[in-house]
Amino acid sequence: MQDRLFSQSxxxxxxxxxxxxxxxxxxxxxKEKAKKIGQRxxxxxxxxxxxxxxxxxxxxxxxxxxxxDEALEQIMTEGxxxxxxxxxxxxxxxxxxxxxxxxxxxxxxxxxxxxxxxEEDEEKVVIQMRPCGSGGRLVLEGKYxxxxxxxxxxxxxxxxxxxANFPVYCAHEPPMEMIDIxxxxxxxxxxxxxxxxxxxxxxxxxxxxxxKVPAKYYERLGLKKPEAPNK
Length: 231
Prior knowledge:
This protein has 231 residues and is of the alpha+beta class. It contains seven helices and six strands.
């Protein structure tokens, strides 16, 4: 009989979720073990995050190369609808819920596992991942370069915020805004893309009063900002 690779206790330990192992270490008062498991959990999640990030970007690249920009935008939009609309529905409604909505949006961005910078003034909250955990890191990692490069959308158009040579992963942001405007009349969040994508920081901007979202954010999507209702 072949020697076993693992003892029964090792198998039982491998079967556990990492978060359960982390809680066990905390309950046992073993701080060093808890730190080690916490870092392992981060590494596990980052690995899976990047796997799906790369898979998604490779798929979008192939769609764009085979079927062109128009089909790419249509498929991108349908894909975004599948997750962005349900997320918008989860946001609390009402006049005194903005802080909670911002926190929920930030919690979602924490899934990209990168540090953030958040600033607030009288009219808006501005959020930056530093670096961007998905599209920005693809650029920083050179994924749009070389023989196996992901697709760069060359032609300026709506899904590139009318910019040339736009990384395909980043082209999901305009459909997010379009979908929200079509559903709710104004975007909950707009993106101000960095001048040099990946090398500088993009900004997620949430206006406290949706009617104060500047017209330029509608116009870059080929839309006209709705007129404010008469009071």
